[in-house]
Amino acid sequence: xxxxxxxxxxxELLETEQAYVNRLHLLDQVxxxxxxxxxxxxxxxxxxxxxxxxxxxxxxxxxxxxxFLPELQKRMEDWNRNPxxxxxxxxxxxFLKMYGEYVKNFDKxxxxxxxxxxxxxxxxxxxxxxxxxxxxANLTLQHHMLEPVQRIPRYELLLKDYVRKLPPxxxxxxxxxxxxxxxxxxxxxxxxxxxxxxxxQNLWVVYQRLGLEDDIVDPSNELIKEGPIQKISTRNxxxxxxxxxxxxxxxxxxxxxxxxxxxxxVHLRMDVGGMKVRELxxxxxxxxxxxSGKQRTLELQARSEEEMNDWIK
Length: 313
Known about the structure:
Its main location: cytoplasm. 56% of the residues lie in helices and 16% in strands. By secondary structure, the protein is α+β, with helices and mostly antiparallel strands. A seven-stranded antiparallel sheet has the order 4-3-2-1-7-6-5, covered by helices on one side. The N and C termini lie far apart (66 Å).
């Protein structure tokens, strides 16, 4: 007699979980532990660097090895009497939020491995040495480290499949659907963590281009648009300027001639609160618009109709 489809998927979940726990064991108990031991001798890299590379892998490993895998094993042994996994996955889902930390750190971890492998030959040798072992299956540390990043999407796929294959009257239907919804939320959570990290990263780069003026650096700011603009003045026609529009302020900048450090100098900042913007229909200067703040008004000229409309919007 053939196994029911949903049981096959539940077994696949168990088998992949077992393989995943072995991979986590390799990352936490082999790579992390041995690199840390060497770091303590002071011969390879600072301990801090090793901690930064592996982020919270130890918590992730313990959670899967000591809780989730054993729970799944118990379930599958008892499947014929009690065919369900939905409730176990519901218990798992909230803990998957700790992946946000690991996923957010992943790119930085890979950069650190590359940088320190160049700086410290003993560090590189130790990694190469571990990678030669049979347990590594000819794969690099970076490759193994990608596994946790891919694990939550994998749960999502398996569980979607499981819910699809469940007979309508299955006792696990309600629980499995709820579990899928929870996993879906967690997957979104780790994507949000990545998006937030990218936003802060980009914001920091903008602040560096502006010379890190204290009153401008604020992590909650959001850059909406930036780009070159012509400033119109009666005396000397137009001159090239540059705008940064944030959610709370407009920075009116001058490109620096000598680009050491900052790229721009902030000439004026205008609060977005109370700002007025309108198009000027000027035949001599096409695509111009006025931006008025509390203190002063700027007459600006864009390079095209489209660009002007973008700014105004």
